[in-house]
Amino acid sequence: MIKAGIIGATGYAGGELVRILTAHKDVEIKWYGSRSYIDQKYASVYQNLFQIVDAVCMDDNMEELAEQVDVIFTATPQGLCASLVNEQILSKVKIVDLSADFRIKDVSVYEKWYGIEHKSPQFIEEAVYGLCEVNREEVKKARLVANPGCYTTCSILTAYPLAKEGLIDMSTLIIDAKSGTSGAGRGAKTANLFCEVNENMKAYGVATHRHTPEIEEQLGYASGEEVVLNFTPHLVPMNRGILATEYAKLKKDVSWEEVKAIYDKYYEDEKFIRVLDKGICPETKWVEGSNYVDIGFQIDPRTKRIIMMGAIDNLVKGAAGQAVQNMNLMFGLPEREGLELVPMFP
Fold it and tell me: ∠ CA(27), CA(71), CA(40), 5° rounding?
């Protein structure tokens, strides 16, 4: 039985980790860390876990936690994991970090986009970018995994096969993405109040969103070239879900069947990636509550562009589900263990 600790257990991603791990047959949660709710019953924060979780919330003492568990999940704001981790801790425990602290290999890029000093840059090179479908073998050997962002997971996986095969002109790639409000976290913010969000849709972080360099870096690895793209996120009035619509110029004329064959080359054996049938567009409602990524595409011969579309649940495949998928790989468990969640509808 794997003993797990969660720092940031009362945020939305942390709560989703608890929901998934509680049903995982090979895991026991030993530590529910939350600075805001120390000594309060966890189920008083998330009443859906009443009579399911009896533990109380604890602090974020990573050194003490490393003595008690096999894996630590850090579902925390940027900078916290980097400020806590050290070699002594990593010699005792594996870490899956859901923040951006170890996702970007160039520390100067991280500090520029996130506006904070990186506290442990010595671990950046070692950290494995935990996009399981791309870096599976590296994740298996890792002791520190950088769990990808929600927008980035959807954006990268949607374009990855075509970038890898050199089918699209990467200099023309534009990503338009929309997310439910849980992606903004559980903290109180005026912009996320019901009256602000309801009956409204808005772009934000235009040309400045901090997931941009993460997407560029990973698609750069895939395509073998430097990638600079436009990424524009939007907030929509729903709880969960991300829909990414991506546009790029095709380098040559191709049929739908030829493009589908490329997606199948990379994803046909992937449990959690579903490439949809011709004429079917991804919808967030068909992945809600699950670890699935639904991908579709449409070729526009008039403009010689391809429109790629991807949908995920931002809290599952975009955060907690992917973190558990990474943990399964790190401990030699079946990758899908605890994650065969059928999407919820309605």
Answer: 75
Judged on CB neighbours under 10 Å (0-12, 13-18, 19+), 8 is buried
Q: pLDDT at position 55, please?
A: 97
Are residues 60 and 7 in contact, defined by beta-carbon separation less than 8 angstroms?
Answer: yes
How, if at all, do strands 242-250 and 168-179 pair?
A: antiparallel
Q: What is the predicted pLDDT for the residue at 189?
A: 87
Instruction: Please check whether residue 290 is in contact with residue 325, taking contact to mean a CB–CB distance below 8 angstroms.
Output: no
- The conformational region for residue 152 under phi > 0 = left, psi -120 to 50 = alpha, else beta, is alpha
Do residues 46 and 14 make contact, with C-beta atoms less than 8 angstroms apart? no
Helix (H) or strand (E) holding 307: strand 305-312
Side-chain-facing half-sphere of 297: CA atoms under 13 Å:
31
Residue 281, pLDDT score: 98
Specify the DSSP element, H or E, that contains 234. Answer: strand 230-235
Choose among 149, 150, 215: nearest CA to 180. 150
CA 341, CA 339: separation in Å to the nearest integer? 5
Is position 150 annotated as part of the catalytic site? yes
Q: Block means of pLDDT (10 residues each) for the chain, length 346 residues?
A: 98 98 98 96 97 97 97 97 98 98 97 97 98 98 98 98 98 98 89 93 97 98 98 97 98 98 98 98 98 98 98 98 98 98 95
**Whole-angstrom distance, CA of residue 292 vs CA of residue 344:** 12
Q: What distance in Å separates the CA atoms of residue 103 and residue 46, rounded to the nearest whole number?
A: 29
Cα 129 to chain center, whole Å? Answer: 11
Could you say which of 57, 150, 154, 281 is catalytic?
Answer: 150
Inter-residue contact 71 to 326 (CB < 8 Å): no
- Report the C-alpha gap between 223 and 227 in whole angstroms: 8
Threshold 0.85, pTM exceeds:
yes
